[in-house]
Amino acid sequence: MSDRDTGAADGGTPPTRDKVVEDAGGDVDPAAARVEEEVAESFRATVEKGAERLHRGWRSLITTGLFGGLEIGLGILAYLAVLHETGNQLLAGLAFGIGLVALYLAHSELFTEGFLRPIMALFAGRGTRLQLLRLWGVTLLANLVGGWIFMWLVVTAFPELVPVLTESAREFVDAPLDARAVSLSLLGGMVITVLTRMQEGTGSDVVKVVAAFSAGFLLAGVGLFHSVLDSILVLGAIHAGAPVSYADWLAWFWYVVPLNLLGGLVFVTAARLVRASEMPEAPGPDNRVAEAGGAGAVDR
Prior knowledge:
The chain is mainly α. The protein folds into 2 domains: 3-35, no CATH class; 45-277, Glycerol uptake facilitator protein, CATH 1.20.1080.10. The chain has 13 helices and no strands. The chain has helices spanning 3-9, 30-54, 58-86, 89-106, 117-123, 129-157, 162-173, 179-200, 205-221, 229-239, 246-276, 285-292, 295-298. Helix 2 (30-54) packs across helix 5, helix 3 runs antiparallel to helix 4 and helix 7 packs across helix 10. It is globular. The protein starts with a helix and ends with a helix. The relative contact order is 0.15.
């Protein structure tokens, strides 16, 4: 009988299969056990939030996606304002974090946030691939529509920002599809997925806000390729009449989306799934059956 089965038979908390928590005598170190429990709690919380997203109704998906695009637009407005006044992209990138903070506090949805939580819920048997594709597709489209609307307002209200907006947009659409573009796109997916992971790993709102500003600094300040953030910049430039077309945008957009997805899934989520498989709650047929009874509470 395995260690895991023995723990369950004794009626106690089943031990993990991670032998790091045991010393040479087979005893569990209390400090290590606490770490394991924290990891397990984080896994359960991530699965719950992911399942809630997978089971959202159409109206909820559309509205959270629209507001996600609008709130990221707030960060882009801050980015453009600081860049216009200072010419310093690093400071402007720090200002962009306002958009990620707004996204977190308003509980809206960004397409690239869906690279961790829903995957974990799918891994735990709390959803289907079709629900995942629906979440990704509707959220991405709604983000872009919300951003398109917001940038029309920005261009109309702040014509003085058009030069820096145009310059920023051209940096993306003029980029050739080469090793650099691929790397920037992979890194963009990694950073936003790491942000989600960091925010799942703490209960402190202050730490979550700091994490949001940190990720914003990397995404906008360093110039990583992000399918939604940078698309909204380009859409704003199109509104402003810059020498950028929707065809130019699509020629950039088509490869950034799957590379963002790949960067988040391979470099962050895959490692998380390997770690989750060592949890006492590692999913199996029995777990999926048990969770099925509570699915209605998640479905909105």
